[in-house]
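lol ok so funny story. i was supposed to be doing the assay writeup but got distracted and ended up predicting the structure for this chain instead. priorities right. anyway since i did it might as well share w the group, maybe its usefull for someone
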Amino acid sequence: MKIQERIFKFITLTNWILLVVISSIGFIINTPEFAMGILFGGLIVSINFHLLYRTIKKAFTPPHLASSSAILAKYYLRFFISAVIIFILILKKYANPIGLTIGLSIVVMSITLAAVLEAKKLICKETV
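and the output, tada:
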């Protein structure tokens, strides 16, 4: 398995694990609106991450090579839809903005964790 595939699988799995764990902690420690913010934010960002992966994979797999403008158009469409969903969640008070921010950070947490673990593997490999 290539390193990129392994890292992608790790990030994807970690996204869902962090979403469940952090949302559960949010429900236990704080208000339901705060926990729902974490849950909705995590769902939005995890789904966007998966869709971005699919778009990029399809775009660079022959014979369906896509233009960069098509990739960017899909990206901005997803961004706009996400912004509208976030706006509605905050406007209708379905989610706490701070909880939503924490939820939207789940992919960043997963990527950071993957980078730290890969750096640790490289450092340990060099010392042996």
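Residues 3-127 form one domain. Helices lie at 3-29, 32-59, 68-91, 97-104, 106-127.
back to the writeup now i swear
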